Amino acid sequence: MEKRLGALPVAAEFLRRLDVAGIVDEVCPGGASALVTHGQVIEALVANRLTSPAPLVRVEDWARCWAVEEVFGIEPALLNDARLARALDAIAPHLEHIAGTVGARAIGEFGIDVARMHWDMTSMSVHGAFPGEGQNENFPVIGYGHPKDRRFDLKQFQAGLAVSADGGIPLHARVFGGGAAEVSQVVGALKDLRAMAGERDFLMVADSKLVSYSNIRTLLAAGVQFIAPAAKVKDEVYAALDPAQAIIVNWTPDREAGKPAERRETYRVLEDTHTLTGPRKSDPPLTVRRILVHSTANAAGQQTARDKRLAKAAEDLNKLGELTLWIGNVTDPPTVQITRGIQLHLLDPLDTDIGQTRWSQTCD
After folding, report:
1. Cα–Cα distance between 216 and 209 in angstroms, integer?
2. pLDDT(339) > 80
């Protein structure tokens, strides 16, 4: 009888070195009479996702066609959907602990450099009603929020992922409810990453959602270095800058590497400080370093965008020249006549009918 082997031995070796089964069984021990432990089932599920993903009702068939029994020592019949569901139910309350322990194990076992870790969140929209009263509040609740795909008509859940700069290896993941504020999840991620890194110092890289008073306060208190895009800088700050004081950075983007030096975009940087104030008067101000970057490519792009907006505005103003005034008579008051082109361009977006009387003017 032939069975597929594929990458099963590779998956099994990595799972063994990460001790996934042992970590799961430590927090989710099964009965002494169980033919297969929760940890063994979870390892088989991970192997399925890595080789030939299948729904729960088809995992048993996958195990029969693949050399699961020979590699993992698990009979295919023991991977029926009911057994898989029991294992998933068992680990559900302990997912964060299991994920953090496996991540820490990976750092030590494979020597992953965690000097810099990147954190970000995304949203995943779902189709269906998903009423709130039918969901377990002990777990992330599917609901409305601020979807990244702009599908405000759909409910969603959110996921956060932390990866190492060393190879982009996922080390930590968390799932959040659809309505959870992204800015409020940074502190939880920081604590998890701090626990995984142990005594190691690391730099946390995130998007602009990291820059809030509560997040910065926690990062400073924990002694964690961080970098994130600054919040919107006021125009008067830029207006007060002296370009002559900026330092030219010796860096060339990959997309510019093939261009002659005189045609490459350049970057200038200035460093100053930024002070954040808390929501309460008693909150101490927090001062952090801020790096302001000027890119010639961005400046040219912004100039092009401004030119296009100005040209569009000039076109709109020229179209207003098509407006004419009909004087009328005693019984027929003066009326502003609007051509069809003006109606399509200016009035239709306002949902205004060309025949509405509020566009007529009468003289006293």
Report:
1. 11
2. no
